[in-house]
Structures are given as C-alpha cells and as structure tokens.
Amino acid sequence: MVITQLSISLDDTPGKTCALSELLGDEGINIRALSAVMHGDDNMVHIVADQPKKAQDLLVANGYEVLTSQVIAVETPDHPGGVTAVMRPLARAGIRIRFFYPMIGRILDNAVMILGVDNLEAAIDALKKEYINILEARPGLGIEQ
Fold it and tell me: Is there a smaller number of Cβ atoms within 10 Å at the N or the C end of the chain?
C-alpha cells in the first residue's frame, strides 16, 4: 500500500532535471509522478518511478545523492471538491500532509495523487474508512515496490 519515492537535490542549472529524466528514460525507467520545488539555490526533485530500486541504483551510480521515503497513492475524484474528499479524512484524523502532487495517468475517471504524510498507517486507516481507494505498487499500475 505504500510506494517508494526518490528525492534528489539538484543545483539550479538549466537542464539538470532534463538530464535526470533522460538518464532514467534511456535505461527504460518510466517516471510515473514528479514534483520539483526550489529551495534557495537547490531544486528538490521527487520522483515515483515504475522501477524504484533500479532507478535509485542508476542515479547513485551516476553521482546523484538519492533519499528514499514511503508515500501513498490515492485515487482522487476528478471534479470540484475531489481533492477535499481525500484531504478531509486526514484533517479529521489529525494527520499532517507534508506534500502532495499528481501522478501521470488516471484510473478510470479519477486522478491519482501522491501523498506524503506524517503517519502512513493512520492515513491509510483514515482514508479506507471513507472508502478512498489506496493504490498498491504493482506492475499493472506501472509501479513496482
């Protein structure tokens, strides 16, 4: 129910994120979700890849410092208030959302969001109680664990 996120800090040089994406793509690794945020002069890139272990090994072998963390992917209704349907159960349960960003692709008519929270197990429980579908890492979804 949890998936691996890779976090890579890049300097703010044009083309760095492109080079990272190209490196992964050349090795047959698909980026399923990506978020890039500037922190001062650094760009923190968060990636969910279809083959996280292979991606991590490749990036480390090419000189990147890679941090891993566990996140959850949830189906999010694609209509006004759809994001609220996911956020409300977490707020009620007192769970802090550290970050969220969209995954590339859809499940039927729903968007998919990647969520980083302060308590994964409590978040999963709170979302399940509200019938929010939490996606499992599996090749059919395009994500291995």
Answer: C
